């Protein structure tokens, strides 16, 4: 399968996101990756209705490749790397100045809070997810 279009979000690095070493703190990447998944959340609940939230985070992993610095924008590219019956995985990259500085993978589960069980992902949502598929 060929690579599809990533979902992209760009952030201006804020001074408060830097640490004593002068680069972006490692926990900031987790926040940026979550914000980069907002368009995916809308596939499941277009209004981002927290009273009917359909996803839970099962796991995440971040690898750091290069330092990120204050004063230069960072772009988060979000892909879908796996779609199952009730769960899917995102593959995300953080880019600054044309350099891939970090990658992250996140497993999310479509979840029914009333029954406290995973729920199948609809075919419509699977189609939307696959429009952003990329082999890992």
Automatic annotation (TrEMBL):
<dbReference type="GO" id="GO:0047617">
    <property type="term" value="F:fatty acyl-CoA hydrolase activity"/>
</dbReference>
<keyword id="KW-0378">Hydrolase</keyword>
<dbReference type="InterPro" id="IPR050563">
    <property type="entry name" value="4-hydroxybenzoyl-CoA_TE"/>
</dbReference>
<comment type="similarity">
    <text>Belongs to the 4-hydroxybenzoyl-CoA thioesterase family.</text>
</comment>
<dbReference type="Pfam" id="PF13279">
    <property type="entry name" value="4HBT_2"/>
</dbReference>
<dbReference type="InterPro" id="IPR029069">
    <property type="entry name" value="HotDog_dom_sf"/>
</dbReference>
<protein>
    <submittedName>
        <fullName>Acyl-CoA thioesterase</fullName>
    </submittedName>
</protein>
């Amino acid at each position: 399968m060929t690579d599809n279009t990533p979902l992209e979000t760009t952030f201006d690095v804020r001074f408060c996101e830097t640490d004593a070493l002068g680069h972006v703190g490692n926990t900031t990447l987790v926040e940026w990756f979550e914000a980069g998944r907002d368009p995916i959340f809308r596939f499941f609940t277009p209004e981002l209705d927290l009273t009917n939230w359909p996803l839970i985070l099962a796991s995440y992993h971040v690898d750091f490749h290069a330092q990120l610095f204050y004063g230069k924008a960072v772009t988060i590219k979000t892909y879908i790397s796996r779609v199952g019956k009730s769960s899917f995985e995102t593959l995300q990259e953080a880019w600054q100045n044309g350099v891939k500085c970090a990658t992250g993978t996140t497993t999310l589960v479509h979840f029914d809070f009333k029954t406290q069980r995973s729920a199948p992902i609809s075919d419509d949502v699977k189609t939307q997810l696959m429009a952003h598929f990329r082999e890992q």
